[in-house]
Amino acid sequence: MSRSHALESNLSTISYPSHIITINKMIKNIVFDFGGVLVQHDFIAYFSDYFHSEEKARQFFAQALPHSFSDEVDRALHPFHYYIERQQRQWPEYVDAIDRFDKHFADMFTGETEGMYEWMCLLKAEGYRLLGLSNWSAKVHEVIARFPRVFSPLEDSLISYTCHYLKPEREIYELFLSKFGVRPEECVFIDDRPDNIEGARKVGMHGVVFHDMNQLKLAIQQLIAEQGGRL
After folding, report:
1. Which long-range contacts (CB under 8 A, 24 or more apart) does 192-195 make?
2. Strand partners, 157
3. Distance between CA atoms of 62 and 40, rounded to whole angstroms?
4. How many CB atoms lie within 10 A of CB 34?
5. Which of 222, 174, 220 is nearest to 199 (CA)?
């Protein structure tokens, strides 16, 4: 059985649409973001329970743990605890809540994306190289430990806290290409943020903004069709 026919046959066994895709041989590397792609999270829901109020949860994040805080811990110019302790000094009324964020980080993740693990395994079995590229602090390891299955098909990853660059900065994509010795035109990057996909495209990678599994399959199908690949 040919490689493409084997992929089509395997995909059909897990209720994929009848128009099963065959990925163009030009594309050799499938690159995954982590949060919002491999695993899902709901920080607001978790802290809505903690505060017994969604409004208070949103206020907590807006004040004590804003987006700039996330960028800082993901870039990791200092250890994670440095930023936690700084925010606790700055927001004493939220000391306990910030401590909970630190101690129960993985609890805010609701699970792996349904259908993702099976799809990754099929792609890997067909010879595609699966890699990770994510903005995350060292807390990533707590999430991987909680949901090891969906991360297991990945050969390796580049995570922002190890290199101190963030998507969509050009440097992190260039470092990724260099680290793994891959050509940008042979990579498809999947991320839930359009700006990160745009950053990947600027260095020559293909990109798909992730919304759900069905949308992902259709988007890749369209990508392959645009390249003249066989569906």
Report:
1. 192/33, 192/35, 192/36, 192/37, 193/33, 193/36, 193/167, 195/167, 195/168
2. 132
3. 21
4. 24
5. 174
In angstroms, how far is the first alpha carbon of the chain from the final one?
17
- Chain Cα centroid distance, residue 214: 17
Alpha carbons 223 and 19: distance in angstroms, whole number = 14
Q: How far apart are CA 196 and CA 134, in angstroms?
A: 10
pLDDT at 228: 56
What would the pLDDT profile of 6-65 be if each residue is shown by its tens digit? 444 444 333 433 333 444 458 889 999 999 999 999 999 999 999 999 999 999 999 999
Burial 177-202 (b: 16+ CB within 10 A, else e): beebebebebbbbbbbbeebbebbee
Both tokens of 119, joined, read 């799809």
Is residue 135 within 8 Å of residue 160, measured between CB atoms? yes
